[in-house]
Amino acid sequence: MSGSYLRPVSGETPVAAGRPKRVVFVDQSALYAESWRAVLACRYGPAVSFEFHRDASEALEALGPDVSLLLLDLELPLFGGRELFELAKERGVTNRRIVILSSRPAEELHLLFPDGSCLAVINKTEPNQQNAFLMILDSIVKRH
Asked: Which terminus has fewer CB within 10 Å in the chain: N or C?
């Protein structure tokens, strides 16, 4: 991942009250996850705790109502992101805390996940989508 949309905005470091916001990232790509881990560390420091899971079944065990944000790749092996999405909700992660990530076009993602079914759907490869994603993160980290 590269581009200006990954740089933190100078002087903007949201401060979280209390314990760190728990961000759980489920994706096949360790490289993609590591790039987001670096962005979150640079942008929010200790205000965010980042967990990466490559395996959906491993991720499922880590999910619960204490997840501040679940970043979920739609194209997961074993069982797909759509199934993990439903299982995460059963484990107490509200749909307002789930962001679906995919390389599919945003229009297709919006058909699969209509408004209100999750917090957002983000195309992994579009810079404007990445900017929207950072705004979502800012909102969650600032929330008490």
From this structure: C
Interacting residues of 84 by C-beta distance below 8 A, sequence separation 6+: 26, 56, 59, 60, 72, 76
What structural domains and CATH numbers belong to the chain? Answer: 19-142 (3.40.50.2300)
Strand order from edge to edge, sheet including 48-53: 48-53, 21-26, 69-73, 98-102, 120-123
State which H helix or E strand residue 62 sits in: helix 56-62
User: Which tokens hold the place of 67?
Assistant: 């997840």
Residue-wise pLDDT for 7-29, tens only, equals 333 333 333 357 899 999 999 99
Q: Which regions of the chain does DSSP assign to beta strands (E)?
A: 21-26, 48-53, 69-73, 98-102, 120-123
Phi, psi dihedral angles at 99 (to 5 degrees): -115, 130
The mean pLDDT value for 117-124 works out to 90
